[in-house]
Write a structure and sequence with these properties.
The protein is of the alpha+beta class. It is 21% helix and 29% strand.
Amino acid sequence: MIRPVVQEERTGCGIAAAAALAGVSYARAKAVARSLGIVASDRKLWSETEYVRDLVAQFGLRAARTRQPFHAWASLPDYALLAIKWHLEQGRPFWHWVVFVRENDRSYVVDSSPTLKAPLRTDFGRMRPVWFLTVTMKR
C-alpha cells in the first residue's frame, strides 16, 4: 500500500506525490528535490512534468515522459501520477498532483492536500483528471 504524505507547503503537491511513491517522508523528498534545484514555490513543479519525473527518478522509480489523456479510471495503469484541478492562469496550465494506485483488487488516489479529512480517496466521481503519467515501480 502506498502511504499518504501530506504536503507541508501550499504548492508542494509534486514533492508529496513523489514522496508517497518512494515511501519516504516529505522532508526527505524535499531535501532530494532541493539537491536537484527543485523547490515547491517554483511554478514548474505544478505546471510542467519534468521536475516531478526527475524527483521520482532519484528514488529509483520511473515516470513516463509522455502524458496520456485520461479516459476512464478502469483504463489507468496500476500506478500513475494524475493531474487534477487542471486550470489556466494567464494562459499557463496548472494542476494538483495526486497518485493513482491499483493493487490487490483495490483502487484509490493518494492526495497530499492538507485540507482533506482522509488522504486516501475513492470518490472518483469528484476528481476530474485531465491526463496522467504512468509510473513504473521498482520495488
